[in-house]
Model the fold of this input.
Amino acid sequence: MSTILVTGGAGFIGSHTCLVLLEAGHDLVVIDNLCNSSEESLRRVEGLSDKSFVFEKIDLLDQPALEQVFVTHSIDAVIHFAGLKAVGESVEDPLWYWRNNVAGTLNLVDAMNRADVRDLVFSSSSTVYGMPEELPVTEAHPLGPVSPYGKTKLAVEDLLRDVAASKPGWRVALLRYFNPVGAHPSGEIGEDPTGIPNNLMPFVMQVAVGRRERVAVFGSDYDTPDGTGIRDYIHVMDLAEGHLAAVERLERFEGCEAVNLGTGQGYSVLDVVRAASGAAGREIPYELVPRRPGDVAAVWSDPGLAKAKLGWQALRGLDEMCRDSWHFQSRNPHGFAKT
Ligand code: NAD
Ligand code: UFG
Done:
């Protein structure tokens, strides 16, 4: 069992992964600046796992504090979630995104290098593929992100490829997630976006719980069976288990390698609204509105490499994703802060 440093561990995917790592017997050091999360998620992870771990409120841009983490603790591997992820916000303030996501990762890798820690799992995104040229999307698909957010993800991937090639010993897994949704089945931890949700599932859930009136379905004239956009939604518990598999099998990564984490199955916006209505036991109102600029009609993954390399595949379907999202939302109608 090893000691794993988790950056951004208080966030949506980080908190679920922390729980899975603790349950697998690993020791954790979690750092987060809480810019998009609350310490309450970590308290709940401790409650669910009945285990404690170190938490330090640290910003990745605070290089001395980051260096000190590697001096104080004997770290074996790092899982790096910390980053900003809102596409629209990245268009409005690209400097913030480049500084936080790219300079933040530079500081982290620098600190790892000094401490002789060379095992890293990085949160990348399917957004690095840009407009899909063929489906399903394999890791060999050309890279061409469109938004500043996506460009910071590709820049970090490039940085890590260069570092891993510079000297032997680095083992880096670039995990390209498709569309993470769902929550831990206990309903204790889940996705708690601040402000108006940008993503479909949290928006649908806020309509279901009565915080918003109706879902705006962006585009109903796509070349898809029901005219709405198709995505590869993946349950956050599957994703968390994918991280456990990756960090425990880093010996299979020589240098730096990318792996898709998706289900391989696409669902339309209306499929999601229907499944969520079933899970919530109530009709979720929606209206068809024009397309959202920058959206693609359909994208889903080829998850074959993850299965071959990590021995991992997603197990949970759309109904389970909606059931668990709803369980979290209905138990925490206003998220972590005001339950
Ligand atoms: P999240 O916002 O819930 O979690 C990110 C965490 O990082 C937050 O707790 C935030 O406070 C922290 N953080 C941000 N900048 C920091 C900094 N400079 N120093 C310390 N902590 C910092 O997001 P998430 O959905 O859990 O995503 C985790 C990672 O996965 C992100 O890197 C994101 O880009 C990536 N990703 C997410 C999705 C998605 O749809 N959720 C898809 C693909 C990739
Ligand atoms: N959608 C709606 N109404 C909404 C929100 C979304 O109809 O209120 C539609 C979109 O048009 C799209 C689908 O629901 O067809 C999914 O949209 P999301 O915003 O949930 O997800 P995206 O696929 O657009 O992008 C997300 C993240 C990106 C990330 C990508 C792949 O926002 O940062 O998944 O991981 F890169």
About this structure: Residues 3-181+235-262+301-315 form a domain with the Rossmann fold fold (CATH 3.40.50.720). Residues 94-114 form the longest helix (21 residues). The mean pLDDT is 97. The chain is about 40% helix and 15% strand.
